[in-house]
Design brief:
Order of helices and strands: EEEEH
Radius of gyration: 12 Å
Helix content: under 10%
Number of domains: 1
Largest sheet: 4 strands, antiparallel
Shape: globular
Mean pLDDT: 87
Strand content: 35-45%
Low-confidence stretches: none
Length: 74
């Protein structure tokens, strides 16, 4: 099994999905980027400096997150 946190995410192309949940300082969005064969990085637009979490496609599916909704393929 690949250690997802050893994969380089410099230059990863993150795509945002916004769910309509708004806050006083703007809408919050989840960002997702494919970073490997079966690896994704998931970030938070409200915390751009935070390290994105890493998941396999199976883990995203278990969490109810479909990469296709971000325009990405599994």
């Amino acid at each position: 099994m690949t250690d997802l946190y050893r994969l380089d995410i410099d230059g990863a192309q993150f795509t945002a999905a916004c769910g309509g949940n708004t806050h006083p300082d703007g809408e919050a969005c989840v960002t997702l980027a494919r970073i490997g064969e079966d690896a994704y990085a998931l970030g938070d637009s409200k915390r751009p400096g935070a390290e994105p979490l890493r998941f396999t496609s199976a883990e995203l599916k278990a969490a109810g997150i479909d990469p296709a909704s971000f325009g990405l393929t599994a």
